[in-house]
Design brief:
The protein has 10 helices and 9 strands. By secondary structure, the protein is α+β, with helices and mostly antiparallel strands. The chain folds into 2 domains: 8-73, Arc Repressor Mutant, subunit A; 83-250, GAF domain (Beta-Lactamase, 2-Layer Sandwich). A 6-stranded antiparallel β-sheet has the order 6-5-4-9-8-7, with helices on both faces. The longest helix is centred in the middle third of the chain and has 17 residues, at 84-100. It is globular.
């Protein structure tokens, strides 16, 4: 992230964004006091930001509780419409999906989460995978491992120290040292299979997406049912198309 002269920053905008981010799946409705506590603001300040969100159509209230409205999604949509990478990758993802029969994704790392920015459409009637805008903890999906594998050892250690590794299945890696070793394995291999880390019976395969300078721009991945790919079948059938796409995109991003 670039450094800025802090005198040019509008602190109120940052506080307002923290109020928006205080809402979550666990806390979809908040009082002003609760929003303030989660955003690091006083109740009075939080209430002013919440009422502003209501006024501009991004939230609603019953007089005590506040909740976000679907219009807040316009903020994320603006990014997706303006970002160059998803538009570049989308047709290649679609072509790969038609070839493999599996849904494919482009994703990036945002803090402790992987955020999915583009998704192909599998030719199957019912496809699995993550929709655009979905956020998943990085330690349970294959893109998280390959993106983190591009970090320096010091940066990786700091990331692990800052994020909890919650358990989703018996296969989830929750021990920090084991997680670090696993990411190092992903670095050596150049790919990673997240075998039932988030859901029993489902696995993901990912490779990092890098530019010509070797800078990581994200990851491309596929999610698949284990029963469809016994043994090393996923590596044999799905890894080469992913690697080929990563090499193609290396020349254009």
């Amino acid at each position: 992230m670039a450094e800025f002269d802090r005198t040019l920053l509008i602190e109120g905008l940052g506080k307002g964004l923290r109020v928006i981010e205080s809402f979550s799946d666990d806390c979809p409705r908040l009082t002003a006091s609760e929003a303030g506590a989660r955003a690091g603001l006083t109740r009075t300040a939080a209430r002013r930001y919440l009422m502003s969100l209501v006024h501009f159509g991004y939230a609603d209230t019953d007089g005590k509780h506040y909740w976000l409205l679907p219009s807040v999604l316009r903020l994320g949509r603006s990014y997706l419409e303006a970002a160059r990478l998803p538009r570049l990758v989308q047709p290649f993802l679609q072509r790969m999906s038609m070839h493999t029969g599996e849904t494919a994704n482009l994703s990036v790392l945002d803090g402790g989460d992987v955020v999915y920015l583009a998704r192909s459409n599998s030719p199957r009637v019912v496809s699995i995978g993550f929709h655009v805008g979905a956020r998943m903890p990085a330690h349970v999906v294959s893109p998280g491992f390959v993106i983190l594998s591009t970090f320096t050892p010091q940066r990786l250690a700091a990331w692990i120290d800052e994020h909890a590794l919650a358990r989703f299945t018996v296969q989830t890696i929750t021990e920090p040292e084991k997680f670090r070793v696993t990411v190092e394995s992903a670095r050596r291999l150049g790919y990673w299979v997240a075998d039932q880390y988030i859901d029993t019976g489902l696995s993901g395969l990912a490779v990092a997406l890098t530019d010509r300078k070797g800078t990581c721009a994200g990851a491309i991945s596929m999610t698949f049912q284990n029963q469809m790919y016994p043994g090393d079948a996923a590596l044999t059938r799905l890894l080469p198309p992913l690697q080929e796409l990563a090499q193609t995109m290396r020349e254009v991003i």
